[in-house]
From TrEMBL:
<dbReference type="Pfam" id="PF12867">
    <property type="entry name" value="DinB_2"/>
</dbReference>
<protein>
    <submittedName>
        <fullName>DinB family protein</fullName>
    </submittedName>
</protein>
<dbReference type="InterPro" id="IPR024775">
    <property type="entry name" value="DinB-like"/>
</dbReference>
<dbReference type="InterPro" id="IPR034660">
    <property type="entry name" value="DinB/YfiT-like"/>
</dbReference>
<feature type="domain" description="DinB-like">
    <location>
        <begin position="13"/>
        <end position="158"/>
    </location>
</feature>
């Protein structure tokens, strides 16, 4: 269960970073579009929420590779801030205006749900419900690390947007 504790800490830390970015924002700045026409902070947080609501682990199986083999590829994919990706339409923000307290509450709920859901699960099993683009089937641990690194990518994005809209 050591890996469960490790990933729970990582999830907690990255979601706390999101909450910290929202700490002193008013709703105008939360919803202000950056000059480059990208997502507002609110839209970015909505994207984080939509992409971190859980992992596809209804069908799992034992397999013959390291449970964390794809973690370096996930980190390279998500933490290369010079690369831009097209998000699956399911994960796109659906609104243009957000309320700060609603987003904070939903971030806390996602964080709590993920941590509770993985507490006693075998994270080394391969999730067979859905393949990750370009990487194939991932373990529960890899899906969770994907959520962490994807969220971290967007924390950096929020920091960049904050510099523009809070200045």
């Amino acid at each position: 269960m050591e890996i469960n504790q490790h990933i729970s800490r990582a999830i907690s830390e990255v979601f706390d970073q999101v909450l910290k970015q929202l700490q002193d924002l008013d709703e105008h700045r939360l919803n202000q579009q950056p000059a480059d026409g990208g997502w507002s902070i609110g839209q970015t947080v909505e994207h984080i929420l939509r992409s971190s609501s859980g992992i596809p682990d209804q069908k799992v199986q034992v397999f013959n590779r390291a449970y964390d083999e794809q973690v370096p590829a996930l980190k390279q994919l998500f933490l290369d801030l010079n690369s831009k990706y097209q998000s699956d339409s399911f994960f796109l923000p659906k609104q243009e205006h957000y309320e700060i307290n609603d987003l904070k509450n939903r971030i806390i709920a996602n964080k709590t749900k993920l941590i509770v859901d993985i507490k006693d699960k075998d994270l080394t099993l391969l999730c067979m419900d859905r393949e990750f683009p370009q990487l194939g089937y991932l373990t529960r641990f890899e899906w969770l690390m994907g959520i962490c690194t994807h969220t971290q990518r967007h924390v950096y994005q929020i920091e960049r947007i904050r510099k523009e809209v809070v200045a």
